[in-house]
Amino acid sequence: MRLNEIVSAERLHIAFFGKRNAGKSSLVNAVTGQNLAVVSPVKGTTTDPVQKAMELLPLGPVVIIDTPGYDDEGELGALRVEKTNEVLNKTDIAVLVYDATIGMRAEDEALLEKLNTRKIPVILAGNKADLAECSMQHAECRKRDDRDTILVSALTGEGVNALKERLADLGRTAKAPKYILADLVSPGDTVILVTPIDESAPKGRLILPQQQTLRELLDLHCIPICCQVEEISSVLERLNNPPRLVITDSQAFGRVSPLVPSTIPLTSFSILFARYKGQLATLAAGAKALSQLKDGDRVLISEGCTHHRQCNDIGTVKIPGWVRNYTKKTLDFAFTSGGEFPEDLSGYDLVIHCGGCMLNEAAMQHRIAIANAAGVPMVNYGVAIAQIHGILQRSLEPFTKELN
Asked: Which of 63, 283, 327, 370, by CA, is between 20 and 30 Å from 24?
């Protein structure tokens, strides 16, 4: 796969934070070599986070994010700061840009503490190195940590290459290579991918988890066979040896399970992504809460993307219907999508989340952490659907060792 074909959710997310007029946007443009962000001497020019997937040498494929100043004021300013805080949730590496002519201020220190608390790697970038008065202030800052404090000038380019090199150093450790199912298969294994083509299937293409799983199987020199539910029996009959694994779209779990002999491991794309992006053990444990729901309980259904809702949408129609039928309870459902996710989950009794294919790992882990801190059980679509259809234990069998 060429670097420019890597999806944003799989790229390292580098976010630039700082006070208004610290020079964040100018530095973003200097680092990327593009006019990615609008710059102006007027405070608060950046009103919304701006992000772009690109190649950043010598690091490679990344997502660069420019954020509004976190010292913004007023009613609109508070909304901008809220958007900046949302960016924190998906940040792999942070660049804290401060005005080196005046040094670190209280707002900078507060954000630095927040980044350290979240264990987000951070580089301090003292901007405006082209101005003489910055040298004394920067000398004080360098006493803090010489490795992660770099003096730069977005205007002249001084220190920009050093900043990019440091980003590359952090990037090599911040995002270790991960695999979806490399430990479950071997070269030459046959793997059946059940990919229903129905009203929810995108025209002319596969959904992202199916694409990524298929590509990884090809990279691993396995033999993937794609089919729809109606063709599974025919495919199995034609094979001289049983497949190593059958992976199905979660929505088809109930139809697929009876067609696949119990001797053949069966799981879903969504469960694979629960393991790949989140914490499978935590999400599997949360499935118990489905049978413990009571009348009036609140269930949050959250998706990481903002796709067009259809009449038979899985998140707003199918899953609520399946949960109601399973629990026989009158429940109150709430819905979020995209970057929207409540920081306070205390008003909910269960969270059912999508597979998270459009979220990076940092964002998915943050959402799980919020649920854990609030003591609210969380499952993802695949886990919930398998529980509802009575086949959760079977769908988790390929991961028995790591769950015990």
From this structure: 370
